[in-house]
Amino acid sequence: MTAKYNAASDVSELKLRLDQAQLSYRDVSLKSRREIVILKRLIARMSVACKGLDSELDKRLDTLRTDLEQNKDISKIVPHLAQVERLLLRQTSTHSTMERLSDLIRQSSESLKRIPALPVQLKRDIHDLLSQAPDSLHHSHQQITQLFGLYDRALKLLTVPVSIERESRSKDNDLQHKLCNELQQIITELDAEGESGDQLLAIRHQLLAGVEPISLVELCLDVLRLALDSFIHERRHSQKFLDVISGDLAALEQTTRQTADQGQALYKHRSELTAELGQLSDRFHHALQQYTNLESWRGAAHSLDTSLRQLVERQRSLENREQALLEQLHYHKNRAEHLYQQTQNQHRQIEDLQRRIFLDPLTRVYNRAAFHDRLEHEYRRWIRYQHPLCLAIVNIDHFGDLNDNYGFQAGDKVLKIIARTVHQHLRDTDFIARVGNDEFMLILPDIAEDERHRRLSGIREAILQLPFRFREKNVTISASIGATLFDDTDTPGKVIERGQKALSSAKHAGRNHLIWIA
Ligand SMILES: Nc1nc2c(ncn2[C@@H]2O[C@H](COP(=O)(O)OP(=O)(O)OP(=O)(O)O)[C@@H](O)[C@H]2O)c(=O)[nH]1
């Protein structure tokens, strides 16, 4: 009985222990499941937080997450956890990378800030960037991107003015080139003589050799001054001439008036003499009728004779005065002739000047002013008659190089010879003008298609065949020609533009070409 009781008490104690063991197992299992949930959550958060820092770490965390999801045996997961821990330890070096990055960002920002003439807003943005201390690699990356943006803005701001400056510099160069050419053209057209002419010629040579911008301004002023001097000189010369002529004319007018007065007085005396001679004749006639014999008439005849002698005397003195008057008139006639001659000379000089205004003094062909006049005239004829009217532009190739290699005198000689050659290939009705530098304009009115092509090709070929020799070297020179015809609603301006386009195509085609643009 006692044994039975003892056994029952052991069973009940075992049962109690079993219940306690079951309870504690349930607690442990519950705790373990809760820990696994926490571990899962932690691993998930770590995956997100560390994403991109290290690809191996990313991979391990992913595997760990999957293993946990699949409720794998924790003992199998533990080695993965150890690897993740090792990788995380490796990430501590990231901290020093971050510090280095942060230093770099700060230094680069400071350097950017020191660039002079940075706009205030940009400086402010750099300051904002510097005020944030990066607390993660991600933040550092954001700051680097920001810094790149700031550098880009600064670079643009600093380089834009440079490009503008370069553009304006190239504009300045174009302007200087144009000014230089215009100035040369003006000097050519001024064609001044004397001391001013010599000085202007010297300036032209300077311009041809190339000058600095500051000298160009000074030369412009010099040209203005010399042009003014030349103008004042011309005006003084004309004034002097006019003074002399008007002085001479006034003197002539005065003496002519005196002569006319004297002539008038002489005429009056002659009339009086004639009247007295008439009276004498009447008295003589009367005496002839009154007296029958000569003796009784002697007394009256004596008185008549005296009167007649006096009349003859007065007649002689009148003749002398008339002779003096004639001599005076003769003198006036010579004087008037001399004056006329002087005005004729002046007229010729003005005509010569007028002609020179339309001539290029170097090549002796027409100049730009004459070209525009003539083109306008031919244009009006074309509108009326609609005959084919051709405009061609001849431009010497690499003329600048020729000047550089053989000097301006050589260049001048080439210009003269080429102008003469082109002129020789033109008809009487054609027109040639040097419109500037090394460029000639040709107007060929009323010219058939094959004829105009033959003529212009002939000019190009003739220039190429010209035998030039400079500094002991045979030099071949070519020219490019652009040509076009007046058509439809064309105006002179449009045609010149088209001709220039054709010329530019001829240059681009390699020079020594004739190009037509219809
Ligand atoms: N000797 C001389 N040279 C002149 C005269 N007038 C202008 N020039 C020069 O003529 C040259 C003209 O050159 P550009 O029209 O620029 O070109 P290029 O050298 O002929 O070259 P492409 O026309 O392109 O084949 C410049 O160097 C001027 O200095 C002048 O009366 N006499």
Ligand types: guanosine-5'-triphosphate
Number of strands: 7
Indicate the structural class. alpha+beta
User: Could you give a short account of the major beta sheet?
Assistant: 5 strands, mixed
- What does the radius of gyration come to? 58 Å
- Which strand-content bin applies to the residues? 5-15%
What order do the SSEs take from the amino end to the carboxyl end, as H and E? Answer: HHHHHHHHHHEHHEEHEEEHE
Q: Could you give the order of strands across the largest sheet? A: 2-3-1-6-7
Based on Cα principal axes, name the global outline: rod-shaped
| Mean pLDDT metric | 86
InterPro entries: DGCcoil, Diguanylate_Cyclase, GGDEF_dom, Nucleotide_cyclase, Rev_trsase/Diguanyl_cyclase
Catalytic activity: 2 GTP = 3',3'-c-di-GMP + 2 diphosphate
Coiled coil: 308-356
Protein name: diguanylate cyclase
Give the helix/strand layout.
Blueprint lengths: L1 H49 L4 H15 L4 H17 L1 H23 L5 H12 L5 H54 L3 H16 L3 H78 L3 H64 L10 H18 L3 E8 L2 H8 L1 H17 L6 E6 L2 E7 L3 H17 L2 E3 L2 E3 L3 E7 L6 H17 L5 E4 L1
Bound molecules: guanosine-5'-triphosphate (GTP).
Written account of the structure:
It is a single chain. It is rod-shaped and about 245 Å long. Helix 4 packs antiparallel against helix 5, helix 6 packs antiparallel against helix 7 and helix 8 runs antiparallel to helix 9. The protein is built from 14 helices and 7 strands. The mean pLDDT is 86. Helices cover 78% and strands 7% of the residues. By secondary structure, the protein is α+β, with helices and mostly antiparallel strands. The strands form 2 sheets. It has a 5-stranded mixed beta sheet with strand order 2-3-1-6-7, with helices on both faces. It has a two-stranded antiparallel sheet with strand order 4-5. The chain binds guanosine-5'-triphosphate (GTP). Its EC number is 2.7.7.65. This is diguanylate cyclase. InterPro entries: DGCcoil, Diguanylate_Cyclase, GGDEF_dom, Nucleotide_cyclase, Rev_trsase/Diguanyl_cyclase. It holds the Pfam family GGDEF.
